[in-house]
Design brief:
The protein contains six helices and no strands. It is mainly α and 148 residues long. The protein starts with a helix and ends with a helix.
Length: 148
Amino acid sequence: MKLKIMLLLVLAVGLLSGCGLVDKVNNTLNYVEEATNFINDTSRLAEQLPALAGQAVTDPEARTTLKNELTGMKERIAKFNALQAPDFAKDVHGQLVGYNETLTKEINGYLEKINNGAIDWKAIENSQFVDTLNQVDKIRDKVQSLTP
């Protein structure tokens, strides 16, 4: 009888620790997926931004689209920054959050210019903003190779 109880206790402890491992793997996969999606969004914006900003100079509809894209990116940045990164991903997450702070400042500046009717697409195309978007894209391989 004691042997059965002891076996059940060992089995229960083994299962509980196994659940922790499963949770850790799930958290890793979720973080990597969220980070990869975020990087894909920034990469897409970096590709579209110069042309969209160029059109926004003369086209009110493109100006609205540009404003919506920038506002949406700010929201995605805030959501990504709020993610709880697993311990092994904290360095990469911190690096992305640092880039995101720069992006947020740049977005706020561009939104202010758009609201004031002053769009300089060359300034956007050659700005730190596009460079920072591209820096975020370069972290993609680091994110996809994260493991606990």
